[in-house]
UniProtKB/TrEMBL annotation:
A GO MF term: RNA binding
Keyword hit for Transit peptide: yes
Keyword annotations of the record: Repeat, Transit peptide
Annotated protein name in UniProt: Pentatricopeptide repeat-containing protein
Source superkingdom: Eukaryota
InterPro entries the record matches: PPR_At4g14850-like_plant, PPR_rpt, TPR-like_helical_dom_sf
PPR repeats: 75-109, 176-210, 211-238
NCBIfam families in UniProt: PPR
């Protein structure tokens, strides 16, 4: 990948970091130019570099972690980028460790941070971490955000705490298909088929995932006639 002969922190150079074919050697070359020019101190350039490194899976993630340590200025956005990338790459333990570093750096988490942390907690089946993050979410005022609420409901329902999930569900002013389906799956996993069906019947709108969740709920407990009925209902609904 060709680089400008005289590096300047301009959009043309930084646009190289957005190339879908960006490799780790190319990223390291751009990083070197940023260091030599002093442009690494520019928050926008640093953010682009961390984001690009995070997109190159494990080799890039290792470099992104080292890069973050070396930056003179770090932001919540940079930490969120790295935490989210680790969650997406099935590295929840590393994501939680990055959150501790974020707090140690004196940075405040936001709604995006917590959405990633809830997914990391679920990935390692750590209900205790989930409850700890829930308390922080309430204290910092992020509970009203839809994707944070959905993350909490999904965490609790997936971990068998359908009571806690239902409390959040009932309080939620905005319930989308994800919210309803998470609750239905929670009841299904706890063997509460009838409650799952009651909730399913109340859904204002359904998608393929919610239909599949209800069919699977019946199939798992051997109620194949009911599963077929739901399947036929789905076919009729178009």
């Amino acid at each position: 990948m060709p680089l400008p002969t005289k590096f300047k922190c301009d959009l043309r150079t930084l646009s190289l970091l957005s190339l879908p074919t960006l490799s780790l050697p190319s990223l390291l070359q751009i990083h070197a130019h940023l260091l030599v020019s002093g442009a690494i101190a520019d928050p926008f350039a640093a953010a682009k570099l961390v984001s690009a490194a995070s997109s190159i899976s494990n080799p890039g993630l290792r470099h992104a972690r080292l890069l973050l340590r070396s930056l003179p200025s770090r932001s919540a956005f940079l930490y969120n980028t790295l935490i989210g990338a680790h969650v997406e790459n099935d590295l929840p333990v590393e994501a939680l460790a990055l959150y501790k570093r974020m707090l140690a750096a004196g940075l405040a988490p936001n709604n995006y941070t917590f959405s990633f942390l809830l997914r990391a907690s679920l990935a390692i089946r750590s209900l205790s971490d989930g409850r700890k993050f829930h308390a922080q979410i309430v204290r910092l005022g992020w509970e009203s955000y839809d994707f944070v609420q959905n993350g909490l409901i999904h965490l609790y329902s997936s971990c068998g705490c359908v009571g806690s999930a239902r409390q959040l569900f009932d309080r939620s002013p905005h319930r989308d298909v994800i919210t309803w389906t998470s609750m239905i799956n929670g009841y299904a996993k706890s063997g509460q088929t009838r409650t799952a069906r009651e909730l399913f019947d109340r859904m204002p709108e359904r998608n393929a995932v919610s239909w599949s969740a209800m069919i699977t709920t019946y199939a798992q407990v051997g109620e194949f006639k009911e599963a077929l009925d739901v399947f036929n209902e789905m076919q009729r609904s178009g």
